[in-house]
Amino acid sequence: MNTTVSVIIPYSSTHTPKNMLLEAKESVKQQSVQTELIVVEDTDQRGPAWARNVGLERADTRYVAFLDADDLWEPDKLERQLKRMHETGAGLCVEGQQMTTGDFIQKLFVGQIGSLTPSILLDTHQTDVQFEESLQRREDHLFMLEAAQDAGVCFCEDIVTVRKQESGVSATTDSSLRFEADLHFLWLGWQRISEYKLHFSEFVHQLYHRHGRLKHTEGNFREAISYLIIATRIRVRPKTVAALCISVIFLLFKILGLDVSKYK
């Protein structure tokens, strides 16, 4: 296959050790197709969305892929994805099991699909989507949602090794900031994704349920109860009702002066 793929790696030495970047670059060099490597150093901490957009501007190939500096690719990652895209006609390919574009949009919206950014391969002839730099998190999810809506999505399994570390960008966001960022994501999704309205109530329910559980694990039982009550009002789900009851019990224990730390 003679196709050249531009590979964009955003890099900040604040979040990722240099040796991990070198290993990521080596996994690009080991690809079975020709690549053009674009490393965008974020020395001013403007964020991965900014760095990826700079990379998109620099890229001059039809196909563009993204790799985080702390992750690795399988040697045939790009070759398998290109083949799958040619077979399906999709303009976006990510890691995962086969599903419809509609199912992908729904699962990604409600948080049933995790980090896929280092698996993205994009056909820029089918979509000109960019990363939303105003989002503090989930900018990659919005990017994939818009790309999938524009050009469809296909999948390949077992193509990326994700290496999490304590100093990574995603590991530094506290729960309050995460909730604010998720609300921003909610608003932008409502504006840009046509299928969004079909899943709106489910996403809002999951948002409040998830942050209620986070507040519970932090020991903020009153806040947890507030989030979980809102989630229950949106949709009555056994897991949310159970979580609400547990937070109420823990709050009562705390008021009574009982140690509940070992049960959280």
Beta-strand percentage range: 5-15%
Strands in their spatial order, largest beta sheet: 2-1-3-6-5-7
Number of helices: 9
Q: Ends: how far apart?
A: 53 Å
Keywords: Membrane, Transferase, Transmembrane, Transmembrane helix
InterPro entries: Glyco_trans_2-like, Nucleotide-diphossugar_trans
GO molecular function: transferase activity
Protein name: Glycosyltransferase involved in cell wall bisynthesis
Summarize the structure in words.
- Keywords: Membrane, Transferase, Transmembrane, Transmembrane helix.
- GO terms for molecular function: transferase activity.
- This is Glycosyltransferase involved in cell wall bisynthesis.
- The chain crosses the membrane at residues 241-260.
- Residues 38-93 form the Glycosyltransferase 2-like domain.
- With 264 residues, this protein is α/β, with parallel strands linked by helices.
- The protein has two domains: 4-171, Spore Coat Polysaccharide Biosynthesis Protein SpsA, Chain A; 193-263.
- It is 47% helix and 14% strand.
- The chain has nine helices and eight strands.
- Strands 2-1-3-6-5-7 form a six-stranded mixed β-sheet, sandwiched between helices. Strands 4-8 form a two-stranded antiparallel ribbon.
- Helix 1 links the parallel strand 1 (4-11) and strand 2.
- Helix 4 (101-109) runs antiparallel to helix 5 and helix 7 (200-217) packs antiparallel against helix 8 (221-234).
- The longest helix has 18 residues, at 175-192.
- The model has no long low-confidence stretch (mean pLDDT 91).
